[in-house]
Structures are given as C-alpha cells and as structure tokens.
Amino acid sequence: MKKLILLLLFIPLASFGQTWVFNKYFENGQLDTEASFKNGKQVGLLKFYYQSGQLQEEHFYKNDQLNGQGTYTYADGEIVRGIWKNGELETAN
C-alpha cells in the first residue's frame, strides 16, 4: 500500500496527452516498480518486484482505478489473487 501512495505522488509529473512509463530501481540495480500513465492517469500493468528480481505484485489499472485480476506473490512462492472492478476488490482467494 505504501508503494501505491508513492506512485500516486508521481501522477502530476506525467505529461498530459502522452503515455509516460515510470520505472524505479533498487540500489542493487534490480527493477523495483513498473507503472504507466496516460493523460495523468495510471493505466495498464503496475508491477512491484522483490530485490531478488522475483515478481511481487501485479495489478491492472484502467483510468486510474484497479480493474481486472491482481496478484500478490509471497517470498515463499504462495500466490494470492483478487479481482478488482472500478477500484473495489470483488473477490479474492
């Protein structure tokens, strides 16, 4: 959740009318976060990674809201999935 708030701080930096890709890296050079923005709104896949490079979270955004399936992968490999619609969690396993 802390990462989502951090990403929201970058929305005003997006160029309006263009797609803007945000990538953040750990100090070790591994990718930490991938996000895309269009017209100042988050769109497409949002991905967070562990420092090892393993995918931690993956969520789909449409018009700045969570929409579709999201996944969270614990360090031990356990995966939790949820379905989001218009920013609201509908189902989770």
Provide the fold topology.
Blueprint: H1 2-8, E1 19-25, E2 31-38, E3 41-49, E4 55-62, E5 65-66, E6 68-73, E7 79-85, E8 88-92
Antiparallel strand pairs: 1-2, 2-3, 3-4, 4-5, 4-6, 6-7, 7-8
Search tags:
93 residues, mainly beta, eight-stranded antiparallel beta sheet, 8 strands, 56% strand, flat
Structure characterization notes:
This protein is mostly beta strands and 93 residues long. The chain has one helix and eight strands; from the N terminus they run H-E-E-E-E-E-E-E-E. The chain has one helix at residues 2-8; strands spanning 19-25, 31-38, 41-49, 55-62, 65-66, 68-73, 79-85, 88-92. Strands 1, 2, 3, 4, 5, 6, 7 and 8 form an eight-stranded antiparallel beta sheet that branches. A hairpin with a 5-residue loop joins strand 3 (41-49) and strand 4. The mean pLDDT is 87.
What is the approximate shape? Answer: flat
Q: What structural class is derived from the secondary structure elements?
A: mainly beta
Radius of gyration: 13 Å
Number of extended strands = 8
Share of helix among residues? under 10%
How many individual helices?
Answer: 1
Query: What is the CA–CA distance across the termini?
Result: 19 Å
Low-confidence spans = none
Arithmetic mean pLDDT? 87
β-strand amount? over 45%
> Could you state the order of secondary-structure elements as H and E?
HEEEEEEEE
Summarize the biggest pleated sheet.
Answer: 8 strands, antiparallel
